[in-house]
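Researcher: We're teaching a course module on how sequence relates to structure. For the next exercise, students receive a sequence and then see the predicted structure as C-alpha cells, so they can try to spot secondary structure elements on their own. Here is the exercise chain.
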Amino acid sequence: MVRRLQRPYSRLGNKGSLAWPAAIVALIIIAWLISLVAGRGQVGGAVTATAGKSAKVANAVGNETVGFLEIFRFRSNVRRARKLEAEIGLLQAELQQASAAKRENEELRQLLKLNIPSGFQTVSAEVATRSMDLWFDTLVLDRGSEAGIGLQNIVVNNKGIVGEVVEAGLGYAKVRLLTSPDFALSAITATSNIGGIAIGVGPTHMSLQYVPVESTLRLQEKVFSAGLAAQADGKPRPRGLLLGFIDSIKKNPGQSTLHIIVRPAVDVTNIGLVTVLIPR
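Model: And here is the predicted structure for the students to work with:
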C-alpha cells in the first residue's frame, strides 16, 4: 500500500521539478530579448548622434575651407579694386583734359568772332603764370616781343578787355589787369555816349571817373574803350572794345562829378586764352 501511494507522488514531483527550470529559461530569454531591443535603440541613437556630429564637423570644415579661400579672394578683390581706381583716375584725367580742350576751343571760336578794330593785328597767347599776391593785378602770358607784343598793347578775350601789356620780353609778356588801381583807359558809354576814364579799383570792379554830375546814365549800360589816348610810342589804341557794365551811380554832395562803379565784362579770376592787339 505504501509503494502504490508513492508512485503517483513521485511522478507529480518530477513534472514540477521540470517546470521550474523551463520558467527560468523563459524569463532569461525574455530578459535577453528586452535587453536586445533596448540595445538596438541605444545603438540607433548612438549612430544618429554620431551622424549628427559628423555633419557638424563637415559643415565646420566646409566653413573653414570657404573662409580660407576667401582670404585669397579678398586679396584678389583688393588688387582688382586698386586697378579699377587707377583706371577711374585715368578716365577722370582724360575727361578733365577733354573738358579743358573743349573750353579752349570754345574760347578760340569766340575770339575769332571778335570785331577787331581796323589798323590792328592780333597775336594769340595763353596765361602762363599768375601771382597769388597780385591775382587781381597782373598776369604773365607765354608770348612776348618775339611775336611783336609791345608796351601798352591792349589784351582781350572773348568777353572783353583784360588789360594792357606793361612789360614784354622773349617768350613772355606781363599784363596789368583792368581791375588794377594802376590801370586807366579812356572810355565811353554805349547809350548816353558820355565819356570818362575807366580806372581799376580792385579786386573785381572799376570806376568811371570825370563824368559830370548832370550826366544821365543808366544802370547796366555798357562801357566801351574810347581809343582817345595814344600809346607812349604814338600809336593808336583800339576803340569800341567792351570794358564792362555800370553797376551803380551816386551823386556825392559838393562834388561836380558822379561816382560810378563799373563791373568788368571779363571774369579776372578765370582767364585762359587771350588776344593781344598790336597796332600796325
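Model: If you want an answer key for the exercise: The radius of gyration is 53 Å. Residues 1-13, 46-51 have pLDDT under 50 and may be disordered.
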